[in-house]
Design a protein that fits this description.
GO terms for molecular function: FMN binding; iron-sulfur cluster binding; metal ion binding; oxidoreductase activity, acting on NAD(P)H. This is 4Fe-4S dicluster domain-containing protein. Keywords: Iron, Iron-sulfur, Metal-binding. Pfam families: Fer4_9. By secondary structure, this protein is an alpha/beta fold. The protein folds into 2 domains: 172 residues, Flavodoxin domain (Rossmann fold, 3-Layer(aba) Sandwich), CATH 3.40.50.360; 58 residues, Alpha-Beta Plaits (2-Layer Sandwich), CATH 3.30.70.3270. 27% of the residues lie in helices and 14% in strands. The protein is built from 7 helices and 9 strands. Helix 1 crosses helix 4. It is globular and about 60 Å long. 37% of the residues are buried. The model has no long low-confidence stretch (mean pLDDT 95). The site of flavin mononucleotide has 26 residues, from helix 1 and strand 4.
């Protein structure tokens, strides 16, 4: 039997430190390798704010692999408006969430619900692990080779599902409804602390290359004075991890305590979870 897949493979991701991009692109590449003809993967990287002003809509012949990092156990709230504006028109979707080895809580079910409300048919979903945005040691260098082997296996399963089922079955994923509240760090007394106002400082290593200005997903770093913020900071880690001279750092005690607590408390390796 010759299996024909007349689908266009699309990827969409928000990925300030690149781990979500690695999983989503890896999945798309592995699926397209199975298809017996040259196909181009269409990609929308919506990490930068300008891209999120453009409207996006799909059609029935599209397969869309869409990924976001897990922030506070949920889909990053700054993305909700954009995500809700994407139209599926019956396209098949594979939601992917990538988390920093603590937990993905209700992020995957939330992303799946958003996609279904937008008119997508959700046929598979996955939660993967990426190096934590706050840390250089928590889930260090993940996704790694072992993760990418699981990505490859997941791609095979997705390909099989798409090419063998006439009536695409939707998938159930792990998570609670109603969703749990946004996860909040606690201080030494066990009281929840709000680190939303925390933002990175800039030290003398800064060579004013403006890279941070160009990678900030909120477009918040002042072009003239890169130590100044003109908008909100979501603590995504892009400016800190991408700075070529390690000039961006945090000194907020609650933030640093939380980071340490995560590094100590969630050191045991977690493994990807696939739903299909
Ligand atoms: C504001 C914020 C909140 C986060 N919350 C969680 C969380 O609840 N659970 C978790 O395991 N990781 C959490 N992370 C870590 C990221 O989900 C993880 O590092 C992810 O791989 C980052 O994706 P990216 O490389 O595509 O930016 C959080 C990161 C940030 C910036």
């Amino acid at each position: 039997m010759v299996v024909v897949m007349n689908k266009t493979i699309n990827t969409m991701y928000f990925s300030p430190t690149g781990t979500t991009e690695k999983i989503v692109s890896g999945l798309a590449e592995k699926i397209s390798e199975k298809i017996d003809r040259e196909i181009a993967i269409k990609n929308i990287d919506f990490t930068l704010p300008g891209v999120r002003n453009e409207t996006v809509s799909f059609a029935g012949e599209d397969v869309v692999i869409i990924g976001v990092p897990v922030y506070a156990g949920r889909v990053p709230n700054v993305l909700l408006k954009y995500l809700n504006s994407i139209t599926g028109n019956g396209a098949l979707a594979i939601p992917v969430v990538v988390y920093g080895n603590r937990n993905y809580d209700d992020a995957l079910i939330e992303l799946k619900d958003i996609l279904e409300l937008n008119g997508f048919t959700v046929i598979a979903g996955g939660a993967f692990i990426g190096e934590h945005s706050f840390s250089k040691i928590l889930a260090q260098n993940r996704p790694d080779e072992k993760d990418m082997a699981i990505v490859s296996d997941f791609a095979n399963q997705i390909y099989t599902k798409i090419t063998t089922q006439d009536n695409m079955q939707t998938v159930a994923v792990k998570g609670n409804r109603p969703y749990r509240k946004y996860y909040m760090p606690k201080n030494e007394q066990g009281i929840a602390v709000d680190i939303r106002k925390v933002s990175p400082k800039t030290n003398d290593n800064c060579i004013d290359c403006k890279l941070c200005v160009n990678v900030c997903p909120m477009g918040s770093i002042d072009d003239e004075d890169v130590s100044k913020l003109n908008g909100i900071c979501i603590k995504c880690g892009a400016c800190v991890k991408k700075c070529p001279t390690q000039a961006k750092y945090y000194d907020d005690q609650d933030y640093l305590r939380h980071k340490h607590e995560l590094e100590v408390g969630f050191a045991d390796r977690r493994e990807p979870e696939l739903f299909i």
